[in-house]
Amino acid sequence: MTPYRLISCLPLTALVFTLILGGCGRVRYDEKMSQEELWELANNQFRHENYLNAIEILTTYTLNYSGSTNIDSAQYLLAESHFALGEYILAESEYNRMLRNTPQSYLAPEAQIKIVLSNAYLSPSAGLDQKFTERTIAGAQNYKEDYSDANVYVRLTRRVPAWQTLGRIVTVGIWHPRQKTLEEADIFETKVVYPHYETGFGHWMLKVLTFGIYRSPTPRLVVPSSQEMTGEWVINRAFDDGRGRLAKKEFRAGELYFHQKKYPSAVIYFDRVLDLYADTFWAKPALQLKGDAMFNMKKYSEAVGVYTKYLSQYGDDSVQLISKRLEESRRPPPLLPIPKVSDAPPDSTSPDLNP
Length: 355
Description:
Elements: H1 3-25, H2 35-47, H3 51-64, H4 71-84, H5 88-101, H6 108-122, H7 131-146, E1 153-158, H8 162-170, E2 190-192, E3 196-198, H9 201-209, E4 220-222, E5 227-230, H10 231-259, H11 263-276, H12 283-296, H13 300-313, H14 319-330
Antiparallel strand pairs: 1-2, 1-5, 3-4
């Protein structure tokens, strides 16, 4: 077989292999199954990480048994399936449907937490539009108002950045970067972990190669490495980290104007940080750059007020620099010397009286 014919066969081979996998993974269920059997099957598919199957079964369940006593659990598990697949917009919609239809459910606090996390995981970096960050903060505030006494736990782990994964692959596992602990990471850098059943890769391959004929042994329940965090911790972290990201966006805008020497515009953004996000990390550099902007605009009295406030609030390695700027601001600017008549440049437009 020529190399060209071999290459041309690769897409067909990949398609056949995909169909085999799809056929093995797709669950078949009888439409005449009872409510209890359908519910048990949905839970089993979720535990085995067959989330697409779980979504199909639970959609059927919620449509046919809307009056069931565990409809809230079914609706919640449907939302969880979307969440586990990273379909956070769909997940939020299903969580909200559960809260609307069964607001008194014992799962309501957990659904509200997952709404917060859905928006947090959709939130982009600080330089982009922050509507999902704002929704994260609003959702956290709703939880504080409605479920402050709830006893809820969420199993979380830190999401490893793609660049670190790539670095380890390139260095064949030699490079081991320091990993942040869960407490050190932002809520945007976390991910939810679900316990699941696992049979092992070897058994899975045997099932694929035998077209599903091979029956693997009873799977064991596996809990990936993670930490169980209280709902209060998750909500407070989401609220604080969300406000920090909004503050960073405002500060970066002011910093850009500052470097462009557009000091009045810079001060507007620094004031927004100081007025709206005074308790965040970005308030300190915003206050310092606001003082520098006032100094550069020769508004020395305003600069004195800003620098004095900085020194009273922050005592760190910047104190010496700020104190120097403060002294310079308190001194009146030096008067420009009045040029002597003899030193004045000749006026080329004046008529020459002595030709």
